[in-house]
Amino acid sequence: MSLSYVVTGGGRGIGRAVVERLSAQGTVIAVERDSGAPAWAGPEVVTLVGDAADEAVVERAADLAQDAGTLAGTPGAIVNVTSHQARRAVPGSLPYSTAKAAIEGLTRALAVEYGRRGVRVNAVAPGSVATERYEEFLAAATPEAAAGISRDMARLHPLGRVAKPDEIAAAVAYLLSDGAAFVNGATLPVDGGRSVLGLDLEAKE
């Protein structure tokens, strides 16, 4: 049986890393709002330009995935992307933290509703990730400011660095795999220990 996947936000950042990893295992429908973002996609990637909030776009993605492999009405898995801030908010992040906490609640509710139908629903919660946006943010800063930001980010993560997008993608691929066949309703921290450290950068060491 061929495998098919739908990845929203698949044109850049974590989404792109997920698409690249999953495309080695089957056909990936990459949903992306920016028409120019998925230009790198290979033959196993079908690009669908549109907003995943649009029901018609989601239905089209499901149809394309069904054409490529078995999807609708069969057992499968969903992985949502949340954040360490869903459980440990930082100042100034009220809307973001609230939205991510809602995704974790949605993950648990869907796991209960659809587990009996053979659909597992889990989530990954990254810390800071060296996506294109992160690199552009550093590049726009002065060298001194960028160095300071990098030092602060290293201190916030017990592993001493931010994540690479592929490291998040690896966790997503695991939760989608048969190796996680009995994992359902879980949120997996992929944050290098940031959420358990809880460092306040304004506190004195």
Fraction of residues in helices? 40-55%
Q: What does the radius of gyration come to?
A: 18 Å
Amount of beta strand: 15-25%
- The SSE string, one letter per element, is EHEEHEHEHHHEH
- Distance N to C terminus: 55 Å
What do the pLDDT scores average to? 91
State the helix count: 7
| Number of beta-strand segments | 6
> What shape does the CA trace take?
globular
Could you say which structural class the secondary elements and strand pairing correspond to?
alpha/beta
Strand order of the largest sheet: 1-2-3
Q: pLDDT under 50 segments (min length 5)?
A: none
How is this structure best described in words?
The structure is a single chain. The protein has helices spanning 13-22, 55-68, 94-114, 132-140, 143-156, 165-176, 194-197; strands spanning 4-8, 27-32, 45-49, 76-81, 119-126, 187-190. It is of the alpha/beta class. Strands 1-2-3 form a three-stranded parallel β-sheet, sandwiched between helices. Helix 1 (13-22) crosses helix 6 and helix 4 packs across helix 5. The longest helix is centred in the middle third of the chain and has 21 residues, at 94-114. It is globular, with a radius of gyration of 18 Å.
